[in-house]
Structures are given as structure tokens and as C-alpha cells.
Amino acid sequence: MVVLPLHRCLVFRSLLHSPRGVSGSHAAKESPAVAWAAERGRQPVRGCLRLDSYSTKSGIAGVAERTLIAVKPDGVQKKLIGQIIQRFEQRGFKLVAMKFLKAPEDLLARHYHDLHKKPFYPNLLRYMSSGPVVAMVWEGHNVVRTSRLMVGDTNPAEALPGTVRGDFSVHISRNVVHASDSVDGAQREIQLWFDRRELVDWECCDHSNTYQV
Ligand code: TYD
Prior knowledge:
Elements: H1 6-15, H2 32-39, E1 66-71, H3 73-77, H4 81-91, E2 94-101, H5 105-111, H6 121-128, E3 133-139, H7 143-151, H8 164-168, E4 177-179, H9 183-193, H10 207-210
Antiparallel strand pairs: 1-3, 1-4, 2-3
Bound molecules: thymidine-5'-diphosphate (TYD).
């Protein structure tokens, strides 16, 4: 992978019109960023040039990273919505989108398509469609990795106290919350659950208390 210095990445960011970045499916062939790379004999690469993960404000890599968090039906029934949101707010992440819905089966099937051959898949889909869920998009530095740590191990028996699953669940089949497990997975899941117009672009006033400016 070609690794360019940060200022080059930021040049790309400022040149790019598409908010999805060159790795997004809307990367126009005539995009100025792509032209910039072509002029210099470079290929825009995924990774360093994940332009949407750079903040134009702070220039800190990964500040605009996003993840999908969902309070599952058991979490809703246990009245945990507020506490789960509070953990992400208090940690310093920014809420970008949220909806309360009974997830349709086809959405759940696409969400869990990697698991469709697993023996627990039918029960998983039945459980996930048994009641409403709260789907959310959270944004911030390293939010994918950090939220996986905050949520805890898939199996609540292994989840540490202090994690959501470690505090509020006992069995793997009812583990209260979902968190995307990779940056690419998060992007895919956010697109599944949310229309682009539902992602709210806003400035959080404590940005400079959370990040160096
Ligand atoms: P998975 O994607 O492996 O875990 P995670 O949610 O931590 O990313 O599995 C998806 C969900 O499937 C998991 O949250 C709970 C359920 N599940 C079971 O019911 N039984 C199992 O043995 C496993 C591995 C998962």
C-alpha cells in the first residue's frame, strides 16, 4: 500500500467533492482527487486515502470514523436504551443518526448474511425481529474499535464487567447490543440501515475538549 503523508491526504480531502471519498461507490472518474493522483502517476488507494476518515477541522486521522450501534430487542425490553446511549455520549462520541423500528426480515438477513450458514442463524433472526430495536450511527476517533471494547465480548460469559454485555446480559443469544466489527463492516451496515439523508451533519460544541485543534 502506498502511504502518503498526512498533508497529502488532506489535500485529497479538500479536493474531493464526493463525501464518500474515493473508496466510495460514487467516486467519479473525473473527480479532482483522482485526477490529482493520475497527474502524479499514483493510484488513489484504500487505506491512507480513506478520505472520509479525516477531519477537515482538526486534521486528526479517524475523527470522522463511524459505526453502527443497535440496541437489540432484549435491550429495548430491559429499558436499557438510555443507559447505552449515555455510555457513548459520555465517552465523547457524536450521535449522527438514530431510529426506533421493528427491523424487517430482509434487512436482518442482509445485515447477518455472513452468518446465514451458522446453526444459530434462524434463532438469531427470530430474536432480532421479535421486537423493536434502536439503530444508531456514532462518530469519533477509533469509534469502531472503541465501541467493540465498550460493548464487550460476543459471549456475555466472557464479557468483562463494565462493558455493556458484561453488565446487562448473561447468554450469547440475548446479548443486548450490536456494534460493527470493522470500519468496512460499519460502512456496509450504516448504508443498510440508514438512508444517506438520515445521517445528520452537525458540529458538536465540545469538539475541542475531545480533540486537539
Ligand atoms: P457475531 O457477528 O459473531 O458477534 P457480534 O455480535 O459480537 O459481532 O454474531 C452475531 C450475533 O449472533 C451475536 O451478537 C449473537 C448471535 N450469536 C449466537 O446467538 N450464538 C453464537 O454462537 C454466536 C457466535 C452468535
